[in-house]
């Protein structure tokens, strides 16, 4: 996350023109947000977005912590008895669909309702999804629940980030530290979610764990309901309103898309065993289309167009990073269930608790990284360097599995996984909050939220790839898997480091 250093930056709020909606720059100045330091040195309004995102992550990771084992555990164990390969593919596809649906959430915000309103409704949809998982038995509950959580999470993700961007003037040096604090809220939820849902799942059953996820999202929704009116007007502005004459065609396209998906499912084109591949293809098509639409738009300037081109290498490296990182929820879950020694003083901790290790490191290190970037100021590494190093470190983390590769059941010590996940975390802090921050800087005015959705599309593609790659994981011969993916990530990061100068030239002053 590079801090603003006085060079020209892209404003991150709604554009000027038309009805002259207030930009985040104006709102921050008029509302005194640049002097408001009540929330750990940040504007107090950040606390409201921090809170709803924290509880959303509690519910999201709490549910995801037990989702894979719910699918492949036997019916006698309370699960669905699904083959592991299909279950990991569905988890990857679902995770990809979460980020893919940020397109819908961003479009609704930029063209119809504004980010804050879409965020609020999305939180309600998420809660309904968790309720379905908790109360509706079998595959129907799984399907309904995952669809609602995916759509709702996509709407909340891009718009929560967008709302945070409206809290700061473009030259506010607290911006990157604010995003790191926001990221801390995400990981507080991600830490407690798997711990508590895993505890309920192992004690009372899977559906109790899903119910707790619903309660968590309900608490977040309640908290946000009280604080949302204190957010700046820019968070509710519609940057690029859709003309009323186009409402009909858009509704028609939406209905047709749903019908096509239903037909493809009914005729067997979309199946559980190829779901990850379907999401990968859909995400690639969506990303190419999005880049084409933004780059060909007549409403962006030449500087903005160049910055979007500069975003493409970051997008590619981000895909590679997330395709490894998100295997925490596919390969690493299976690995933790079968290969990891989870016994602590005679007690075996739940599988899902492994997913709370990474958030602990995030909670500890996010403040360290935020302070480091603030202290370094203009001397800190540029965003492409951070991305390149993040990819290299992620690749190194996969190589760290090799000393324990092909071992016996329960042969990997817990301390080894803790160390590997520490390396995961360092890589994540060089890419994820940095990516959120730089995307708001590179975004053209009229595509602000949709550019954030583009960043999440890289996460979508990487997450779906994480599910698809899991089919090649062989517990009997792990060395090729970890070695190949590790060196691919290292090579990708090295390539970006070699291309830093041309990428920065395209980014036109944004570092």
Word description of this protein:
This protein has 511 residues and is mainly alpha-helical. It has a single domain (40-507), classed as Growth Hormone, Chain: A. Helices cover 69% and strands 1% of the residues. The protein has helices spanning 24-30, 45-72, 84-100, 102-113, 115-135, 138-165, 175-203, 206-227, 247-266, 275-296, 302-325, 331-338, 357-376, 383-399, 414-442, 448-469, 479-498, 500-507; strands spanning 343-344, 347-348. The chain has a two-stranded antiparallel ribbon. Helix 5 runs antiparallel to helix 6 (138-165), helix 6 (138-165) packs antiparallel against helix 16 and helix 11 (302-325) runs parallel beside helix 14 (383-399). The protein is globular. Mean pLDDT is 82; it is low at 1-32.
Structural class: mainly alpha
Classify the helix fraction into a percent range. Answer: 55-70%
What is the count of helical runs?
18
The structural domain count equals 1
SSE string, helices as H and strands as E: HHHHHHHHHHHHEEHHHHHH
Estimated share of beta-strand residues: under 5%
Distance between the termini: 9 Å
Q: What is the overall shape?
A: globular
CATH class: Mainly Alpha
Could you name the ranges where pLDDT drops below 50 across 5 or more consecutive residues?
A: 1-32
Kindly identify the CATH topology: Growth Hormone, Chain: A
Question: How many β-strands, per DSSP?
Answer: 2
Global mean pLDDT: 82
* Multimerization state: single chain
Keywords: Cell membrane, Membrane, Transmembrane, Transmembrane helix, Transport
Region (Disordered): 1-28
Transmembrane segments: 58-73, 85-109, 118-140, 146-168, 180-200, 206-226, 247-270, 276-296, 308-325, 353-373, 385-405, 411-431, 452-473, 479-500
Membrane topology: Multi-pass membrane protein
